[in-house]
Amino acid sequence: MAPLPLKVLRTLIDFIRGALIGIVEIIPGVSGGTVALIIGVYERIIDSAGEFVRGIVHLVLDPPRGRGLATVKHHFRQVAWPLLVPLAIGMILGLLTAAAIVAPIVENHPVQSRAFFAGLILIALWVPARMVGGRWTWREWALAIPSAALAFWFTGLPTGNMSDPSLFLVAVAGAFAVCALAIPGMSGSFILLVMGLYEPTLAAVNDRDFGYLGVLLAGMAVGFALFVRTLQWLLKHHRRVSLAIMTGLMAGSLRALWPWQSESGLAQPPGSDAWLTLLWFVIGALVVTATLVVESWLVRRRIANGVAVIPS
């Protein structure tokens, strides 16, 4: 059998990457931004999203002022469409699959699931820590430690549930959740859980409630448009600082993945299933280690990164 062309293989890889992000976004406590960092697409997503937002702003403002569409086209050309399109399709399909399959597994086996994801994220801390570049100074530690404490406090907040939320609250929750999605270590699903909207949102996805989902997506679009340019600027001008904070947020968020918890999210001592739980923790650590090794191999083979490695 002839090998797949490089562009086809790259598209397939990006589709799988998107599916992974979509799957974990349905699980409270697990950050899609973290997975994007692990699989090597985080900064390209943020850069492309920033250019897309600029293009939309100019599309709205420039024609009425007689400025034409030249600036709009410039920004849209900077978007990594060959990456974002398969990534977005994979995310949508992964999210729908997770809502129907993965979420029930997590609900029926919460202790083992949290242990698995805790092992995954603990090893994944190496990704943003390495991306800081060089030896960490006192400044990086001074930012990472309070960030970890903030995430630790936030993930310890009690959760709730609303049976009939207002659409305004749904839009606000979407705006906050998408900001968390863009930050490694902060889970958009956990934001919804804290605001009492996780179960209604999951039900809306499974029931195809397009009215609810449309309002949620509108809130997400507004929140992302307001937030992504700030994040892009920070990564460009304060890269070490930003990545150190992300590392701290990821570390602190591990509190949400302590395997033994009460229904309200309070930590409890280990149970009689400690050894089985430890096994799932190790499996999670091995999975992300294997992912990082494969990603490194693919980059060396010049087939993983469409813009940086393979010309589009």
Task: Annotate the secondary structure layout.
Elements: H1 6-25, H2 32-38, H3 42-61, H4 70-77, H5 81-108, H6 110-124, H7 126-131, H8 138-154, H9 167-182, H10 188-194, H11 198-207, H12 210-237, H13 239-252, H14 274-300
Helix pairs in contact: 1-2, 1-5, 3-4, 3-12, 5-6, 6-14, 8-13, 9-10, 9-12, 12-13
Salient structural properties:
312 residues, single chain, 71% helix, mainly alpha, disordered C terminus
Fold and architecture overview:
This is DUF368 domain-containing protein. With 312 residues, the chain is an all-alpha fold. The chain has one domain (6-300). 71% of the residues lie in helices and 0% in strands. The protein has helices at 6-25, 32-38, 42-61, 70-77, 81-108, 110-124, 126-131, 138-154, 167-182, 188-194, 198-207, 210-237, 239-252, 274-300. Helix 9 (167-182) runs parallel beside helix 12. It is globular, with a radius of gyration of 20 Å. The model is unreliable at 302-312 (pLDDT under 50).
Structure described in brief:
By secondary structure, the protein is mainly α. It has helices at 6-25, 32-38, 42-61, 70-77, 81-108, 110-124, 126-131, 138-154, 167-182, 188-194, 198-207, 210-237, 239-252, 274-300.
Helix-strand pattern, N to C?
HHHHHHHHHHHHHH
User: How can the largest sheet be summarized?
Assistant: none
Total count of strands: 0
Number of helices: 14
Rg: 20 Å
Mean pLDDT: 79
Estimate nothing, just give the exact number of structural domains: 1
- The computed structural class is mainly alpha
Distance between the termini: 25 Å
- Which stretches are low in confidence, meaning pLDDT under 50 for 5 or more residues running? 302-312
State the helical fraction: over 70%
Question: Strand-residue fraction?
Answer: under 5%
Query: What does the overall shape look like?
Result: globular
